[in-house]
Amino acid sequence: MIRARARVWTRARPGAVPPAVLAVRAAAGLLALGGLGHTLWAGVHDPGTALAFGLLIAVGELARWGALPGEREPAPLGAAGALAYALLGRVGGEPAGHDVLQVIAVLLAAQLVACVPHLARGSAPTPDRVARRVLTVAFAAVCFQPLYGSAHAAGRFGEGPYHVLLPLLLLVLTGLCDAVLAALLARSRSVPYGRRGAVGAPAPYGPLLRDELRGLVGIGSAVCATGVVMALGVAVAGLWALPVLCVPLLLTQVAFRRFVAVRTTYRQTITSLARSTEIAGHTRPGHARRVAELSVAVGRELGLSGNRLLVLEYAALMHDIGQLSLVDPVPDGATATLPAAEQHRIALLGGAVVRQTGVDGEVADVVERQADPYREQPLSARIVRAVNAYDDLSGEGLIGPLGALEQLRLGTGHDYQPEVVESLARVLARGGLVPVPSG
Q1: Is the pLDDT of residue 172 over 60?
Q2: Is the C-alpha dihedral spanning 414, 312, 283, 281 positive or negative?
Q3: What is the reported pTM?
């Protein structure tokens, strides 16, 4: 039995901000105020260089126009320019002379200038993204500027290959810092907050961090490499090197934008195919979307990430596509109430339909095996089966959310994996769909 704690989900305020998010924003705000105040008081050292990098960062932020969902870094040119300024030790052979606080001030001024057209368009960057950018660039500058300016470091690293490895190593550490911050913010946002604090359990930190680290391999590596090349190029050739060194990253951004657009279109096509069962009256409205969202949340809870999570989402969207082959629709589309043999037949029909659509064969395999005993299934099929059964059983006129979870727990001997069912219960409790179990 589930004994609910005394928590009322309707008291949660959507505008409440988790403490971790407040801490990140406060730290970034203090750094920003300190950087602006110090620079206004002491003046700008080498205004020409500061203006050149400020314009580069602002142009990079303005290039966020039309950013697509799924882009981990919608302004790679701005990020590379900010990192390059943080790692800048010389300009045309002469010492640069700027300090950490001036780096932060130039970054913030460029961000504010670039925000004006975005605010007019209604697509300004979120406070969390700005705070992350300030903290990561400050981290790089704090690590590099004092070390580069010391005579001991100059004698040890010199002008040879070790001088190149130093900023590369610092940028790797900066990327790790940014990934840790991004995962922390994502984990904090996964918890609903009310007047008395958290009203649910946070998402697991490990899978979120793995997702962020995997993102560093793609556009993150291009941003870091361009930042290092910019800093080294300006150190030798002066500011004229900036426009030349921007071209490769701009081309990378265009190619990545096209890739994201293709993937977005692909997902929209699969979503449209999944809705065909609802339009035909075989399933309840929103069933495929609900199963997909819950399946992805459960998959994250169990440690899935990257391509495995994408396969799980597509399979959950298309798990009922086999019902289109039925002459007589299943009442309310609740396949979980059918005999095992009929569930297996519908799953095989669905897998055959998925294979004909040209979707990844792994997706078809998950759809085909969702009705097998869970010990013979891959993890993705176990998740889809449990989540589909929950949504079927908790529908109107049936046994409701708590009854559906109890029914799944009773079937853990053969039909549903216990770990999947318990992960589903935690996800539902975190979202407020069922009471949080005590103990």
Answers
A1: yes
A2: negative
A3: 0.71
